[in-house]
Structures are given as structure tokens and as C-alpha cells.
Model the fold of this input.
Amino acid sequence: MIDSVDTLEEAEEVISNITPEEKEQLDLNIVEKYTQNKEEIETKDIELAKNEIQSKVEKKLEEEKKLENMPEINGVKLAYLPITGTITSRYGASSKIRRSNHTGLDIAATLGTPIKVVSSGIVTCASYQGSYGNIVKIDHGNGIETWYAHTSKMYVEVGQEVKAGEIIAAVGTTGNSTGPHLHLEIRINGEHVNPQNYLYQ
Done:
């Protein structure tokens, strides 16, 4: 790693040799310093920059490692957990507030918590639907769908393409709900399956 160079031209050359992917991860700046005494050059800024870059690289590697360990269904990579929270009702559970056994997984979280889409796809529904309340449905292809229900806000529209990890809605308590949570469903060829076979294991 180069900490400093002697001329502006050398600095520009160093930056030009960095790949576009690396540039996205770095906050690059060229700072000119003038001194008659080399010992007067501040090294704190250099050390801070090095530490910041190292931290970003480590975080990126950690995210890539997590992604490698995430499951696939029919070739569709489930790359992100929608939210972090407490599981309050599992798939198949019975309850007085439901007519049938639970078709998804309930994860409690603070009202307004951002909900991420687990994989890239196309929005097929973003509307209020009875007991589901505000629900967003995403078609990921290969017969795989994910549903995100009881949301307080929906940030996407039908027909919109979304990328894995994109925020599509916010945790709410609309529809048949007793408190803020995300009702997550995974459907394969139209049939709901246990989300914990793939996520929140």
C-alpha cells in the first residue's frame, strides 16, 4: 500500500491503477502538503486512512463470507435476512387469531424497521390484502416467491425490479396483527414452505 507520493501526478497515477470495484469500497482523496522538513508531515491522517480502508476491506470480506453460506432454492440465492428480530410465531403454529395453521414465520421488531428483500426479483404485489395487511410479494424466478406482510410502509410498486438486500418496506402491524412484526412467507411453485428450512436457522 502506498501512503504518500512526491507529486500530484504520481498520486493521480496511483488512483488510476485502482480497479472500479476497489474504488467503490474506498473514499479516496488527494491531499497536497508542503514542507521544508519531511519530519513535519503529519502521519496521523495516513494511519487513520489505512485503518479505515482496512476496516472496510474486512467488512466486505465478512459480508462475502456470509453470502457464500446463505442457502439456495431452485438456484435462487437467498442472500439477505429481511430483518433482525425475535421469532414470535413459527411456521405451522396454531393460534386463536388464525383460522388455519401459520403459513409463515413471524419476526418481531421495532415499528418502522427497514425490511430487505432476500433475493433479487420483480414485485408482483404491493397492496393491502385483508389479514395480511400491507403486503409485498416478490417473484424471484424458478417458482420461488417471498411475501412480506403487516408492513407499515411499502417502498416498491408492482412491476418494479429489486436487487437483493434492497429495502422494500418497513415493519408494521397492519391487518391481522397484535404488534409490530414481519410475517415472512417463502413459496415454491405457489405452495408455502417453512422459512426456517432456509433462513433464521
Remarks:
- Residues 44-69 form the longest helix (26 residues).
- The mean pLDDT is 84.
- The longest strand covers residues 121-128.
